[in-house]
Design a protein that fits this description.
Length: 207
């Protein structure tokens, strides 16, 4: 017997799914989750979804969310292979929610977004290697070129090794179980500016 396939859930139907008892699972990393998430969602990063699937109620629909829908589609496929029968992938992810003016939740003390941390670190490395090439040894300039090439590769492949490493550093780690978190709501009070779902992510960002 073949595994069931997940379905696509539109942003406009998220509230109805949640009201019907669906479990919202965000499969991004903690820093992304802390910065903006659908209210009521729980964090289970993509790398942990198989091992932690036992935490989910198989009798309830599961709505999987990420930044643009790519990682959540992978997570949804994994859950289907594990025997979950009602799995839904949020079309366009958090970016689609922003575009549609959906109010999102964030931690007040959320760390910088991974994209912002990547830009800061990449820029700092380029400056450091250029200074070293001038003050110490000229070949250091090739390391600056290597950082630039890495950012180009990240943009082309829509994957970023630097971002994955940064996401696992202590300041981006999940809060300790039971720790108190203060949240606020974010969202646009003005009419939403709609875009086509599937617009490419900024260079270097996980999708």
């Amino acid at each position: 017997m073949s595994n069931p396939k997940f379905t696509i859930l539109r942003v406009a139907d998220v509230e109805n799914a949640r009201a019907a008892g669906a479990t919202l699972v965000d499969v991004r990393e903690f820093a992304e989750f802390a910065a903006a998430r659908v209210p009521g969602s729980r964090l289970i990063p993509l790398a942990q979804i198989a091992d932690r699937s036992v935490e989910l109620d198989r009798n309830k629909p599961v709505v999987v969310v990420c930044r643009t829908g790519r990682r959540s589609s992978e997570a949804a496929a994994i859950l289907c292979r594990l025997g979950f029968e009602d799995v839904r992938n949020l079309e366009g992810g958090i970016e689609a929610c922003r575009a549609d003016g959906v109010e999102l939740e964030r931690d007040v003390t959320a760390p910088w977004a991974i994209e912002r941390q990547v830009r800061l670190l990449a820029g700092a490395l380029v400056i450091a290697f250029i200074l070293l090439s001038v003050l110490v040894a000229q070949p250091f300039v090739w390391l600056a070129a290597f950082v630039g090439a890495g950012m180009m590769f990240a943009a082309i492949t829509e994957s970023c090794a630097m971002g994955l490493v940064l996401a696992r550093l202590p300041w981006n780690a999940r809060s300790k179980p039971g720790s108190r978190r203060t949240c606020s709501m974010i969202g646009s009070a003005s009419p939403p500016t709609r875009r086509r779902h599937g617009t490419p992510s900024p260079p270097g960002m996980p999708t």
